[in-house]
Design a protein that fits this description.
Length: about 750
């Protein structure tokens, strides 16, 4: 870089006087104040105008303050111009001045002394500014290459002298690592100071030569080539680092700052991957492979999962604390492979069923989170989850001893699996589909029975007297039942039993809530369509029409001369909507027959062409009885029509045999037996039986119990026809099968046509 004008004049007194004056005048713009200030602050310029100035001993004076440029005023400045702008023309020196004799050698010696002082941690004799300017002056005169080589030789010699302490007698591993770390830290600090002195060299010569390393990179190359690349040093260093990490994994406390510094050293020297990472990953693989095999045999699944989670967190902490970030992927994959992926099947086979049985949601969450890290873990977990549902659900459905609690157990099991799916398996869509398929599979392993029991369960919940739940709770329960209903294939079986039970609830008035009934009907319609619920909706319509008909009939009776003392209520049922009932013929009292005749005449008079068929097995009565006991002199008995026919016989006599009752009523034998059991063997025994037993046999005698007493005025005696018999179940199932054959035949005819 060219010297300034004042320094050139000082270092080259042999220049002509006129040239020196011209250069001086180049900085003097005929301003008296500036001229006076320049004369006071520039003794060098004064010496050129008068006597010769002595040479300055300070070599830093060679550094030009203005980078070798001088400003020369244009001749136009001295001429007065009117209305024109002034121009300043800046030109380089015509010739570059030469350096003083032996300047480069003397300057390098001082720079070398400074570098050696830095290496030896001594005080530098010269200021950093002087050293920096010296480097700048040498570089300005094309001596940069020589200066760079000289600096490299000095640094290489110093680093070479440091190697001996690391290849000598072996000390303990920790002391060795600490000494190496101290050497590395000293080297980095020294290279930073050296670079600050030779910064001009670094920013000019190095940048202009792509094949030349920067001063910092040169220091790294020298340290790598002279110390770390030595096989003994590298092996002892890596073995020491691996030993410290192994101790930490075993529970010992180690110096994290030492590990971080040395591993960063390997990374800066660009040998981290080849020298350390490969051996580190191999050691990690061996450690966790052995640990995984051992702990899978020693520990239960929850404890093993907690250990794996702890290990993963520890390795993540190591990555944050001292390992290089490039190791993260390979390290975590190695741990996951040896502690999880290899043992996925064993973990699921050994512990999943217990976790699900005991509803250990926290452990299941951890299991799902850990298996997300593996390639096949979630797929296998989904398969085992589905298999568990099928196995557990099958035990609920298949076992006949659990029929009474089947639906309740299914609802509880479904709630449990839903909770696990949402809370533990993050509502994974694949798991949800697998659970749905599993429920659908095991529920239909036992044909027709689940549909039948679901219908009975709904009937039990919708009956009057069910005080187990509020309306809101009942609505939520019906929603859950519909979920189970969706899994059932034999929905026609459900419809048949549900329709039969609904008919009983409507006809006997045992429905808990019409709103709840209609809500269930709406859910079924939404699920299966209008065709599925059309008959059920027709049943509700019949009940509404029957109310209107009975209102008209009562108005009609009031206009007659003898309305009678019996209140008759008739429900008109459309045969296609309601279950099929076998016609039953019984002997009714004359007053009942008269009421039937009156209603039939009234109804057919309004609906010509229709046919009425009475169903006595669906009838019920409210009769008043007189007993001799003072506390129970008058009672009202709510009974079935069959029960009322038997009780009315005791108005004529106090005792009847089984054969006499059957002859007087013509009630079918099995139905008669059950009816007599409800009257003579139940809780409300309005008649007594001789001999006393629960079995009804030929020759048994039945007497009116005049001493009957009860705390209630109106007493409901359980109606036998509400209890479903085996014959009714068989009849219902056969009707379903016939409907199926009819639909199959109809479908076949459509295909053929």
């Amino acid at each position: 870089m060219p010297l300034s004008s004042s320094e050139k004049l000082k270092s080259d007194p042999g220049l002509p006087q006129s040239q020196r004056k011209r250069r001086i005048s180049g900085n003097n713009h005929h301003h008296p104040d500036r001229k006076r200030a320049r004369e006071e602050l520039s003794p060098v310029i004064k010496s050129t105008m008068g006597e010769t100035a002595p040479k300055r001993a300070n070599f830093s004076a060679l550094s030009p303050p203005n980078n070798g440029f001088t400003t020369r005023s244009s001749p136009l400045i001295h001429s007065k111009q009117t209305g024109g702008s002034r121009k300043l023309v800046i030109k380089n020196f015509k010739a570059k001045p030469d350096l003083p004799e032996n300047y480069v050698q003397q300057t390098w010696q001082r720079l070398k002394d400074a570098v050696e002082a830095i290496h030896e941690s001594r005080r530098i004799q010269y200021s950093l500014e002087e050293l920096y300017k010296a480097v700048e002056n040498i570089c300005s005169h094309k001596k940069s290459g020589t200066l760079y080589d000289q600096l490299k030789d000095v640094c290489e010699g110093h680093i070479g002298s440091q190697k001996r302490q690391f290849t000598g007698e072996k000390t303990d591993s920790l002391s060795y690592l600490k000494e190496l770390d101290r050497c590395w830290q000293d080297h980095c600090r020294q290279m930073i100071m050296i670079r600050s002195i030779f910064l001009f060299l670094d920013r000019t010569y190095v940048l202009q030569n792509s094949l030349v390393s920067s001063i910092w990179e040169m220091g790294l190359d020298l340290f790598r080539g002279r110390i770390i690349s030595n096989d003994t040093v590298q092996q002892r260093t890596v073995d020491g680092l691996l030993s410290l990490i192994h101790d930490e994994r075993g529970g010992d406390v180690v110096d994290h700052s030492l590990l971080k510094s040395l591993l960063r050293m390997l990374s800066d020297l660009q040998i981290y991957e080849d020298a350390f990472e490969k051996k580190f990953l191999e050691a990690t693989d061996e450690l966790y492979a052995a640990e995984g095999q051992r702990l899978m045999q020693e520990r239960e699944v929850p404890q093993y999962l907690a250990h794996v989670d702890k290990r993963l967190k520890e390795e993540s902490d190591r990555l944050l604390t001292y390992l290089d970030h490039s190791t993260k992927k390979h390290l975590i994959v190695t741990v996951e492979k040896q502690l999880l992926e290899v043992h996925v099947g064993s973990i699921l086979q050994k512990g999943l069923d217990n976790l699900l049985d005991e509803n250990r949601t926290s452990d299941l969450k951890l299991l799902y989170k850990l298996f997300q890290r593996t390639r096949t873990g979630l797929n296998e977990l989904c398969q085992y989850f589905s298999a568990y549902i099928k196995k557990t659900g099958t035990t609920i459905v298949i076992d006949p001893e659990k029929d009474k609690t089947m639906v309740q157990d299914l609802l509880y099991f479904k709630d449990k699996m839903d909770h696990i799916l949402v809370d533990c398996f993050t509502n994974n869509e694949k798991f949800a589909i697998a659970m749905k398929d599993a429920f659908e599979t095991f529920i239909n392993k036992r044909l027709n029975k689940p549909a039948e029991f679901v219908a009975k369960y709904v009937d039990n919940k919708l009956r009057a007297g069910n005080k187990e739940a509020t309306e809101e709770e009942l609505e939520r329960l019906l929603d859950k039942i519909m979920v189970i209903f969706r899994f059932i294939h034999g929905k026609d079986v459900f419809e048949a039993f549900y329709k039969k039970d609904l008919a009983k609830r409507l006809l006997v008035g045992k429905s808990a809530s019409i709103d709840a009934e209609k809500s269930m009907l709406s859910k079924l319609k939404q699920e299966c369509g209008g065709a599925f619920t059309s008959k059920l909706e027709g049943m509700f319509k019949d009940m509404e029409l029957s109310k209107d008909i009975m209102l008209a009939y009562k108005q009609h009776i009031q206009h007659q001369s003898d309305p009678g003392n019996i209140d008759l209520t008739v429900n008109i049922l459309t045969m296609g909507y309601w279950p099929t009932y076998a016609p039953i013929e019984v002997l009714l009292p004359s007053n009942m027959i008269m009421l039937q005749t009156k209603f039939k005449t009234f109804y057919l008079g309004k609906h010509n062409g229709r046919k009425l068929q009475w169903q006595p097995n669906l009838g019920h009565c409210l009769i008043r009885a007189q007993f001799t006991h003072k506390s129970s002199s008058a009672k009202e008995l709510q009974v079935s029509l069959f029960q009322s026919l038997i009780l009315l016989l005791f108005n004529e006599a106090d005792e009847f045999s089984l054969e006499e009752i059957q002859a007087a009523t013509h009630i079918e034998k099995t139905e008669l037996t059950r009816t007599l059991q409800s009257l003579a063997c139940g809780k409300a025994r309005v008649i007594t039986k001789q001999p006393k037993s629960k079995e009804i046999e030929r020759g048994d005698k039945f007497c009116f119990n005049s001493e009957f007493k009860h705390k209630l005025f109106r007493i409901k005696i359980n109606q036998v026809q509400m209890r479903e018999t085996v014959e009714e179940q068989t009849t219902t199932q056969e009707r379903v099968f016939q409907d199926r054959r009819h639909h199959q035949y109809h479908s076949l005819m459509l295909v053929l046509s």
